[in-house]
Amino acid sequence: MKHSTAGKDFFVIGISYRTANLETRGLFSLGSTQCDAMLQEAKSDGIAELLINTTCNRTELYAYVEDPSKMIDLLCKHSRGSLSTFEKLGYCYQNQEAIHHIFKVGTGLDSQILGDFEIIGQLKQGFYRSKKAGLVNGLSERLINAVIQASKRIKNETNISTGATSVAFASVQYILKHIEQISQKNILLFGTGKIGRNTCENLIKHTENDHIVLINRTHEKAQDVAGKFNVNVKPFGELPSEIRKADVMIVATGAQHPTVSKDLIHTDKPLLILDLSIPNNVHTNVTELDHVRVVNLDTLSQITQETLEERKKHLPEAEKILEEVKAEFMQWLEHRKYAPLLRAFKDKLSSQQELEIKNQSKKKVLSEDATTLSQQLIQKITGQLANYLRENPNKASETLAVFEDVFQLPTHEAK
Q1: pLDDT digit string (tens) for 362-399?
Q2: Which of 225, 231, 289 is nearest to 260 (CA)?
Q3: How is 66-132 classified by DSSP, letter by letter?
């Protein structure tokens, strides 16, 4: 069953690093199962288009609905976040403001690390998930394609992404700064999340450490990562003993709850733990251990300030490109409103053509050329009207009203 977006507005609702700390963002984060369940419920509730964007820095929903409270209810129902928390720390944007926001998010201009182009990949994943669920129509597909175009142009035409500011790089820089003789230390990577894998790759490049240990709940995934990097895979059951040996532990399991607590840590030597997960995968009780230092994503995101200040110099250039691509989308959106009347006008002319053909056929004076000519004339007249509306947007409403009245056309909304 298809649902229309007619008469509905475009909304963004969400919670991000700008409004909430890491712990609170973790409450609203969504795993794959939760995303799929939300999309199915939205579809059965009559929502025609819905996209989910869930990252370490934000969880946002994009949809065409009459009332955004539907979206907020879905988010709170399928996450661990409460309505009262969302009302305090969440946000809601509508129509043009919402469209501008998704452009800023998708181009990395609203990221905690300015110019982070990983976000566009995450947005694409959300788009493909929604498309598979049947919750993508012409509007959202055109919008996401425009955001992708803006992201590509900003990446290729500006230097806003210069300098290493990824969390993976920040993690390695933190380790190098705080751990002496890192090439001789024991490093344990727990989990195969994307940030963890990237950190592992950076560690190998920058530390020349050839005895990094990888443990994952799913042994096959660990073996797959080991095939790409020079790491030693150990069974999940050996996690406590490997923690005991470790000088540095990187946690990137991607679980929705803590996977490392102080009960797993049986060592008296100093241990640095980097929690690269959202929500946090390292339990807060680990900080009760005097010899253990825990560093999370929010801390790591702040250590590349110099590079970020350099990137800010290229912000006006990036914003100019964003506005150019957004203007093209807004123009398409505006023209889209004319489509129903143009279809109705064309249908009216076609029905008159059919009636005239029927009358002329009775008189046996109609030629095949005359039929073709009349069809071409209909196309030409409709095209002239469409061009006039595009070239005179300030007169569009008045023109549409006149045509609806003169030709007795039904009033339509874009679907």
Answers
A1: 555 555 555 565 666 666 666 666 676 667 766 766 76
A2: 289
A3: S-THHHHHHHHHHSS--HHHHHHH-EEEETHHHHHHHHHHHTTSSSSSTT-THHHHHHHHHHHHHHH
Quickly list DSSP for 25-44.
HHHH---HHHHHHHHHHHHH
Eight-state DSSP code of residue 288: G
Closest to 45 in 3D by CA, of 81, 71, 21: 71
Angle (deg, nearest 10), helices 167-178 and 194-207: 50
User: Residues 286, 131: contact at Cβ < 8 Å?
Assistant: no
Residue 254, Ramachandran bin (φ over 0: left; ψ between -120 and 50: alpha; else beta): left
Return the domain boundaries, the chain: 9-162+311-334, 167-303, 339-406
Could you tell me which CATH class the domain 167-303 is placed in?
alpha beta
State residue 176's pLDDT score.
83
Residues making up the chain, counted from first to last? 415
Q: Which residues are identified as catalytic? A: 56
CATH topology for the 9-162+311-334 domain: Beta Polymerase; domain 2 (3.30.460)
Which pLDDT score is estimated for 128?
95
Q: Is residue 281 within 8 Å of 275, Cβ to Cβ?
A: yes
Helix axis angle, 368-391 relative to 396-406, nearest 10°? 150
Nearest to 282 by CA among 253, 248, 245: 253
Query: 35 pLDDT exceeds 80?
Result: yes
- 3 state DSSP class of 9: strand
| 56 in Cβ contact with 26 (< 8 Å) | no
Strands (E), 287-388: 292-296
Burial of 315 (0-12, 13-18, 19+ CB in 10 A): middle
pTM over 0.70, yes/no: no
Q: Is 258 left (phi over 0), alpha (psi -120 to 50) or beta?
A: beta
Three-class secondary structure of residue 414 per DSSP: coil
Q: CB 408: neighbour CB atoms within 10 A?
A: 9
Beta 187-190 vs 91-94: how paired, if at all? unpaired
- Among the ranges given (86-100, 129-143, 247-261, 356-370), the one the predictor scored with the smallest mean pLDDT: 356-370
